[in-house]
Amino acid sequence: MGNPARVVSTEIWQDGRAVSTVLEYATGARCIATWIDLPNLWDFKETLEIYGDDKRVILSYPTGFSRGQLSAVTVRDIDDNGASFETHPAVDWESPFVAELRHFHACVTRGVVCRTPLSAARHYVQLVVDIARAGLPT
């Protein structure tokens, strides 16, 4: 989706252990993101959902740390007759978190080119700053 054009809003709650933010993209699309720390519940769940007018794609990471629990992809679509259906494309057996660590290791030890160049890091840092600023009381 690229870099957002702006941070629409941010709410920081639960004494700073939760953040909800709305990002706007140049196309007019919105990203609604929420992060919540549950200090007494050792559970991890990450879900990315992308919605279009006639399709929804959901990517779920059940855990970042347990072996044998795969990510899942669900595609909800509409056929030519207007009937809804759902597919579950196969997902690579390797955990995406492990794959990310392997790639980082290869960048450091073998000089493999990073998928995301270091020059892009400034955009990520600026986004975090913009999200935090939007959450400050006015």
Quick one: how many beta strands? 7
Helix and strand sequence: EEEEEEEHH
- Pairing-aware structural class of the strands and helices? alpha+beta
The tally of structural domains comes to 2
- How much of the polypeptide forms β-strand, as a percent range? 25-35%
In helices, the fraction of residues equals: 10-25%
Q: Could you say which overall geometry the principal axes of the C-alpha atoms support?
A: globular
The largest sheet, given as strand count, sense and whether it forms a barrel, is: 4 strands, antiparallel
Through-space gap between termini: 30 Å
Helical stretch count? 2
What does this structure look like?
The protein is built from two helices and seven strands, in the order βββββββαα. By secondary structure, it is an alpha+beta fold. It has a four-stranded antiparallel beta sheet, with no helix packed on it. Strands 1-2-3 form a three-stranded antiparallel beta sheet, with helices on one face. The mean pLDDT is 87.
Task: Outline the fold blueprint.
Elements lengths: L5 E8 L4 E7 L5 E7 L9 E6 L3 E7 L10 E7 L5 E4 L8 H15 L10 H14 L4
Antiparallel strand pairs: 1-2, 2-3, 4-5, 5-6, 6-7
